[in-house]
């Protein structure tokens, strides 16, 4: 969605061409509008409540429990495929040796294949960085932002935007239900971790928006 001002009111607008919807078999209104004034107050209230001191422990526990199992890194999947192929080659070399193929040639092939296998095996043992944050990690990352409630209550728009960014806030608007789903994805670089996803917080209350199909 993109920002748009109309009659001194800020809106978030999503424009979806009919041609794109038809080509991708997606049902979507041509235009969706969501007024910022209808979004920010309930969003800030929800965040302030979720990260208030008396609820912080519960919020961290839920965020920790909601972390998905990390998917295998593409490199690791490729490495496992190489290992399987190398094992199959070595088995065929043994059959060829028993069938009378030159032992020196078999030894050369086997050495090359074993080297490839060892390299692939090393890939599988390389940390991917995609692991769960501990509750202590999550607590440290949240408290490093200061009092979220105070910042949201008094901050300028840019300071609020910084809080949203540091929390990794992601909003998904359903115009049919007039509902915004809020999720957080903490910045892993604060702990030197490459990738981690957070979630598990209830969405804020329904927020009014408009959509048009013409």
Explain what the structure shows.
There is one protein chain. The chain has 214 residues and is an alpha+beta fold. It folds into 2 domains: 152 residues, no CATH class; 51 residues. It is 50% helix and 15% strand. A 4-stranded antiparallel sheet has the order 1-2-3-6. α4 packs antiparallel against α5. The protein is elongated and about 85 Å long. It starts with a strand and ends with a strand.
Main β-sheet description: 4 strands, antiparallel
Q: What is the number of independent domains?
A: 2
Summarize the helix and strand pattern as letters: EEHEHHHHHHHEEE
Strand coverage percent: 5-15%
Percent of residues in helices:
40-55%
Return the average pLDDT rounded to an integer. 76
The low-pLDDT segments are 192-214
The secondary structure category is: alpha+beta
Major sheet strand order: 1-2-3-6
* Assembly form of the protein: single chain
Separation of the first and last Cα atoms: 18 Å
Count of individual helical segments: 8
What is the tally of beta strands?
6
Spatial extent as radius of gyration: 26 Å
Shape: elongated
Task: Offer a few descriptive terms.
2 domains; alpha+beta; 214 residues; 6 strands; two-stranded antiparallel ribbon; four-stranded antiparallel sheet
Walk me through the topology:
Layout: E1 2-6, E2 9-15, H1 18-23, E3 31-35, H2 36-50, H3 53-65, H4 74-98, H5 103-124, H6 135-143, H7 148-154, H8 157-167, E4 169-174, E5 179-184, E6 210-212
Antiparallel strand pairs: 1-2, 2-3, 3-6, 4-5
Helix pairs in contact: 2-7, 4-5
């Amino acid at each position: 969605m993109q920002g748009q001002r109309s009659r001194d009111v800020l809106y978030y607008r999503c424009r979806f061409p009919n041609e794109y919807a038809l080509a991708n078999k997606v049902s979507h209104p041509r235009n969706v509008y969501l007024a910022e004034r209808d979004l920010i107050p309930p969003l800030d209230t929800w965040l302030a409540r979720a990260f208030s001191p008396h609820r912080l422990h519960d919020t961290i526990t839920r965020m920790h429990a909601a972390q998905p199992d990390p998917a295998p890194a593409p490199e690791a999947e490729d490495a496992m495929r190489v290992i399987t192929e190398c094992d199959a080659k070595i088995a065929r070399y043994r059959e060829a040796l028993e069938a009378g193929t030159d032992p020196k040639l078999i030894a050369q092939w086997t050495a090359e294949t074993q080297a490839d296998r060892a390299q692939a095996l090393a890939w599988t043992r390389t940390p991917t960085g995609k692991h769960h944050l501990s509750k202590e990690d999550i607590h440290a990352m949240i408290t490093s932002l200061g009092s979220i409630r105070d910042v949201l209550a008094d901050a300028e728009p840019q300071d609020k935007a910084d809080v949203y960014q540091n929390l990794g806030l992601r909003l998904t608007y359903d115009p049919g239900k007039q509902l915004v789903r809020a999720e957080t994805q903490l910045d892993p670089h604060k702990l030197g971790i490459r990738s981690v996803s957070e979630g598990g917080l209830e969405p804020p209350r329904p927020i009014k928006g408009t959509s048009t199909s013409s």
